[in-house]
């Protein structure tokens, strides 16, 4: 549309938007991709008239906390984000081989996505572990891609 406007000197914004929406709808509906469960994705997809395909809901996996081996420190990290994208926070807790509290951290982050704040959690955990002089650490988080 930009090139058409440059070379034809004919700008019709409503026509251009209509063509872009139609082409996006055509491509989007022929795709086999699925959307994430975020309002922003949903709003964009519905704006372009694309049929929504949401990821399948996974079955929950039973998880239990285990004590780290003697001489090791376990760091559990997690984060939370409200909306997509939005303000986020990440934090972690350090526990010894008897489950005793050794330390912890938290950090507020700017506008982030879930993947980004989980990676920040790992980085902050490792920096804090280094600052505390810990060399044998076991890091756990709930984001499989980060693990």
Helix and strand sequence: HHHEEEHE
Proportion of residues in extended strands: 15-25%
Molecular shape? elongated
- Compute the number of strand runs: 4
Q: Class of the largest domain, according to the CATH hierarchy?
A: Alpha Beta
Largest sheet: 4 strands, mixed
Count of discrete domains = 2
Number of discrete helical segments: 4
Let me know the CATH homologous superfamily of the largest domain.
Answer: Ribonuclease H-like superfamily/Ribonuclease H
Which fold name is given in CATH as the topology of the largest domain? Nucleotidyltransferase, domain 5
- Rg calculated over all Cα atoms: 23 Å
Structural class: alpha+beta
Q: Mean pLDDT, rounded to whole units?
A: 78
CATH architecture of the largest domain: 2-Layer Sandwich
Oligomer: single chain
**Alpha carbon gap, first and last residue:** 44 Å
Q: Uncertain regions: pLDDT < 50 for 5+ in a row?
A: none
- The side-by-side strand order for the widest beta sheet comes to 3-2-1-4
Fraction of helical residues:
25-40%
């Amino acid at each position: 549309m930009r090139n058409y406007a440059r070379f034809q000197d004919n700008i019709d914004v409503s026509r251009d938007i209509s063509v872009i929406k139609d082409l996006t709808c055509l491509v989007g509906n022929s795709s086999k991709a699925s959307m994430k469960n975020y309002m922003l994705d949903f709003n964009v997809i519905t704006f372009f008239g694309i049929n929504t395909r949401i990821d399948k809901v996974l079955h929950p996996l039973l998880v239990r906390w285990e004590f780290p081996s003697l001489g090791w420190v376990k760091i559990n990290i997690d984060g939370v984000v409200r909306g997509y994208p939005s303000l986020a926070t990440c934090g972690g807790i350090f526990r010894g081989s008897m489950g005793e509290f050794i330390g912890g951290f938290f950090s507020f982050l700017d506008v982030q996505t879930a993947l980004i704040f989980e990676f920040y959690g790992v980085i902050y955990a490792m920096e804090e572990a280094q600052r505390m002089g810990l060399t044998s650490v076991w890091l756990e988080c709930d984001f499989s891609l980060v693990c």
